[in-house]
Design goal:
Bound molecules: adenosine-5'-triphosphate, magnesium ion
Distance between the termini: 37 Å
Structural class: alpha+beta
Radius of gyration: 29 Å
Number of helices: 14
Number of strands: 31
Oligomer: single chain
Amino acid sequence: MRVSNMMLKTLREVPAEAETVSHQLMLRAAMMRKMAAGIYSFLPLGLRTLHKVEQIVREEMDAAGAQELLMPAILPAEYYQESGRWDVFGPEMFRLKDRGARDFCLGPTHEEIFTQIVKGEVSSYRQLPLTLYQIQTKYRDERRPRFGVMRSREFIMKDAYSFDRDEKGLDVSYQKMYKAYCNAFKRMGLDFIVVDADSGAMGGSGSQEFMVKSESGEDTVAYCEACGYAANDEKAACVPEKMAKEEPKELKKIHTPKAGTIEELVDFLHTDEKHFAKTLLYAADGKTVAVMVRGDREVNETKLANLLGANELALAEADVVVEVTGARVGFAGPIGLPVPVYCDLEVAEMSNFIVGANESDYHYENVNMKDFTPEVIADLRTITEGDVCPRCGKPVSTTRGVEVGHIFKLGTKYTEALDCTYLDENGAATKIVMGCYGIGINRTLAAVIEQNNDENGIIWPVSVAPYQAVVVPVNGTNEEQMALAEDIYKKLQKNGIEVLLDDRNERPGVKFKDADLIGIPVRITVGKKASEGIVEYKLRQEEAATDLAIEEAIKEACAYIQTALQFEREE
Ligand code: ATP
Ligand code: MG
């Protein structure tokens, strides 16, 4: 491709609306442009990279024996109504009506639709196992679309679904997808970890997420160097810190004016956070509940929602807190509270602690478990650095991660809801056992950029780069340089290299800046030494450039690119 013919308006300034590096660079490198919040157009350069990610995923799915098909994005409500998810999805689902006022949605995920297809096509145990997938556009009206295509409202997902006779079969299909995911992400050069994940609203018996380590990740992952345990912090089990049990002292109400936050209380009472239990009110599917955790801990809303079986969960509004507690916000406590109290395991370890008194400017001290009656005592807090590993007891570390893929043992949730059965060897109708497996294509692309960049721009791994090499004549008006550059360009093309020729009549600085910004792995610069048959060879990921004879530079570029594309698939 000749750069002079490209639509490539790179930006020198960092766009103000972009917070993460990948978002900034995707805009600056003219990969995409915003159409609306969380909705982007992919421009030529961006689309090439998107196709590369797609193709790697496709090849790994095919190698694992999955078959590709394509479902519509616009889907009738009935299948989601049958599974119950028409309601569960709530406002995240884009809904529309056709001219006959029939309900449709833009597919947020396709479990129901694949189940429906398999129900029609599969009848015998002989047709199983089966893994089907598509690479297709999904729609989710996210509450907070952000970070460009990392959390967008329209995005491309590879979604696969496995269909097996039984749980044992599912285990095998799941394992194949696990390996296919590892292979795909390795081919893209990603540094990732696989973590246990919350199964959430999807139900099912187990799930894992593929997390790309990155500061801009929205997820936190806890992992243990000692035993290899790794889990999303939504899921990671917390071990209560042991605290010395004290003899209960006399319960006392104390005046704590203006101490409505833990920090203010710590200052006021000259003690530390571990001596408080905070009580937070939540609205869970419209009902108010209270949750207690130690003062220095955070409530884990995923664990809470799972415990309550709640679909919608959020902190209660201030006016509800005032009404329920009879006090200003900041003075809630478990004693005499007229709503059910869900208490974290660690609170049960505490003695003589401090809680809000449900009265403005008052707390209770010397509170013990005997002073109130929790509905349930359970693991309701979020793991943090300094906690111990729930598996081996050694300290855990935490890191931020971007969830690029999710694999899931679904079981029979959807095949039961949609009555999808097969006839076994004895002719008995049996529910098919399912797994589902997603990769966010655009988000994965952004994650590759998050891990591969410097102050000058993107540093594409060869496998994902929009073009593998760029030839830059330094002086666009020098005929000798231009002819030589043209010649190298053609030879690289003949060798199957995806190559750019920057034939624009621009200053060399502009061309170098753009080549760096758009992250092309190999650069061959044709400059003053062209007449001696010497060019400059430089890799984007290295500082240094070397002078090479023309033919050598071409050979070197081909060898480098071919080596970088080689990949040993783990079976
Ligand atoms: P998240 O917790 O980030 O919202 P999810 O659990 O809703 O993700 P899944 O339903 O498992 O995601 O979807 C499969 C994959 O699709 C995810 O692993 C992610 O890579 C991608 N994905 C999900 N939501 C989005 C989004 N809004 N924008 C871009 N990619 C997404
Ligand atoms: Mg989501």
